[in-house]
Write a structure and sequence with these properties.
The protein is an alpha/beta fold. It has 14 helices and 21 strands. It is globular and about 75 Å long. The chain binds cytidine-5'-monophosphate (C5P).
Length: about 400
């Protein structure tokens, strides 16, 4: 049977893009039923949306004909996925608080289907602490998000994060949610980004990891249907669609958040964990002056990869580490598998411009093979690795 989407169009200028989204979904054989809020109808008409969807549009909770005909409970249930695009700040706030005073919000409160929101709003509204709270609440409730992206705002010409994801991006995320991928039901952990280790309340030790490769892997695993927890150090990246992101700062917090994600089918440790931390974090800011230049004593951080690899019964079925090497890449990676107790190592040669760049050249090393992959975009590395993971987890004995 063909898949069914209920598209809720909210009241924002990005609503015009939702008309294209209807077309793009229908091109994939997905049937689209449309609900529009009152504000949405100021931007696009139900006639236009209905003509593209090929069926009438629903707008009113109190319209007797509409309620008798289909009704908000059936609208909420007779679909495989609900998409809200554009999801305005107001609509996110209403949903986060469980309000149900119009058709769109009543449908969302009544549904038991997965919900994908594509937020669109002015960058100041997106970064406002009220919206941040509502966003966190909705994420915790299991709603999925795509975007918002960075770019120029249609109304004001301002730049910043708040622009609705493009129709094709929303469609791709929706298709991934609609189609049960090979990793459906599997639990994955990805660590990403740097850790920062406090010296005093204002200073820290860290490194230059951008988090790009780890975020791409989390996104690729989610696209294949996995339930992904992304434990991330500070980065400038938005959480990928459909991924549960847990923000941490130090290696010890990363370890704690990683253990909290158990049980797991697969753990991919991409984070550039700081090797050392200051032994004593000064309570107050260390003063310049009389005492001269301070000496900072360091101690070793816990090794998260090794800890998860050696968990015994609770060990994830497949544990994958990364290794940044500059020479004897394969040999060093094999030694790392043995030392850490993980199953695979993805080794990258960082002698070039890989750190922070858009591309990566890696060798996948397992217990019995070493495969050199051509240099490609970090997203492509991520998809290829997710494919290998899916194969390993869906064949009977995980490939070692
Ligand atoms: O020992 P090295 O830092 O080269 O190992 C890199 C791999 O180990 C990466 O997968 C990294 O995420 C992981 N790692 C870790 N905890 C540490 C150090 C490294 O999980 N404290």
């Amino acid at each position: 049977m063909s898949k069914r989407v209920l598209l809720i169009i909210g009241g924002g200028i990005a609503a015009y893009k939702s008309l294209d989204l209807i077309r793009r979904l229908r091109e994939q054989g997905v049937s689209v039923r449309v609900v529009m809020t009152e504000a949405a109808q100021r931007f696009v008409t139900p006639l236009a949306a209905g003509a593209i969807a090929g069926e009438r549009v629903f707008t009113d909770l109190f319209d007797q004909a509409q309620e008798f005909d289909v009704g908000h409970i059936r609208l909420a249930r007779e679909c495989d996925l609900i998409i809200v695009a554009p999801a305005t700040a107001d609509f996110m706030a209403k949903t986060a608080h469980g309000l149900a005073n119009d058709l769109a919000s009543a449908v969302l409160l009544a549904t038991d289907k997965p919900v994908l929101m594509a937020p669109a709003m002015n960058p100041h509204m997106w970064s406002n602490s009220a919206t941040r709270r509502n966003f966190a609440t909705l994420q915790a409730q299991g709603l999925r998000f795509v975007g918002p992206n960075e770019g120029e705002m249609a109304e004001s010409g301002e730049r910043g994060v708040g622009r609705m994801a493009e129709p094709l991006e929303i469609r791709d995320t929706a298709m991934a949610l609609l189609n049960d991928g090979p990793l459906k039901g599997k639990r994955a952990l990805v660590t990403a980004g740097p850790t920062i280790e406090a010296i005093d309340p204002v200073r820290f030790l860290s490194n230059r990891s951008s988090g790009k490769q780890g975020y791409a892997i989390a996104a690729a695993l989610a696209e294949l249907g996995a339930e992904v927890t992304l434990v991330s150090g500070p980065t400038n990246l938005p959480a990928p669609a459909g991924v549960k992101r847990v923000d941490i700062e130090s290696a010890r917090e990363m370890l704690e958040a990683s253990e909290a994600a158990l049980p797991l089918d697969v753990a991919v440790m991409v984070a550039a964990v700081a090797d050392w931390r200051p032994t004593n974090e000064a309570k107050g800011k260390i003063k310049k002056g009389a005492a001269g230049v301070p000496t900072i004593a360091l101690q070793e951080n816990p090794d998260i990869l090794a800890t998860l690899s050696k968990l015994g019964k609770k060990r994830p079925k497949l544990v994958i580490g990364f290794a940044a090497e500059t020479d004897d890449v394969e040999e060093n990676a094999r030694a790392k598998i043995a030392k850490k107790g993980c199953d695979w190592i993805v080794a990258n040669d960082v002698s070039g411009d890989v750190m922070g760049g858009a591309e990566n050249a890696v060798i996948l090393i397992t217990k019995d093979k070493a495969e050199t992959w051509p240099r490609m975009a970090k997203q492509a590395v991520a998809r290829k690795l997710a494919g290998e993971i899916a194969q390993a987890l869906t064949t009977k004995a995980p490939r070692k």
